[in-house]
Specification:
GO terms for molecular function: DNA binding; DNA-binding transcription factor activity. Keywords: DNA-binding. The chain has 8 helices and 3 strands. A hairpin with a 5-residue loop joins strand 2 and strand 3. About 5% of the residues have low confidence.
């Protein structure tokens, strides 16, 4: 057996518990890496880097080695830019014009409602009670 086959076999023994694939959720105020932002926005990292070159308002912190860390306000701005480009069909120049005329806050606020929808607690409780009642009847 070759070395790489041995390593693979060692990792996939029957009965082994797979490591957890997802880390715990970060707080809303946490800085995020480009891969985390790419996953949040369902947009490839290379597109985020391209947008950074086209929109001077996107300024992630860069640490040693050029690793990007996005602040919550950077993520909100990226969400708004994504909304304007993909949902509203604007061009890069069109989004640049909106940013110039309406400002970063406007663009960042565009997708804010979609980012974290507020749960309707009363409706959720009503649905859960209805399910509980149905389960009791069966």
């Amino acid at each position: 057996m070759r070395h790489d086959e041995t390593a693979t076999a060692r990792r996939t023994r029957p009965g082994d518990v797979a490591p957890q694939s997802r880390a715990p959720e970060k707080s809303a105020d946490a800085f995020r890496t480009i891969s985390e932002v790419a996953e949040l926005l369902d947009t490839p990292a290379h597109v985020l880097r391209f947008w950074e070159s086209k929109f001077s308002q996107i300024k992630p912190m860069k640490r040693g080695g050029g690793r990007r860390y996005y602040r919550p306000e950077d993520v909100a701005l990226l969400r708004g830019i994504r909304e304007l480009l993909y949902e509203d069909g604007l061009t890069i120049k069109g989004v640049q014009k909106v940013l110039r005329e309406r400002g970063q806050r406007h663009v960042a606020g565009l997708a804010e409602a979609e980012a974290e929808p507020a749960p309707d607690v009363d409706a959720t409780l009503a649905r859960l009670e209805a399910l509980r009642n149905r389960l009791r009847q069966e």
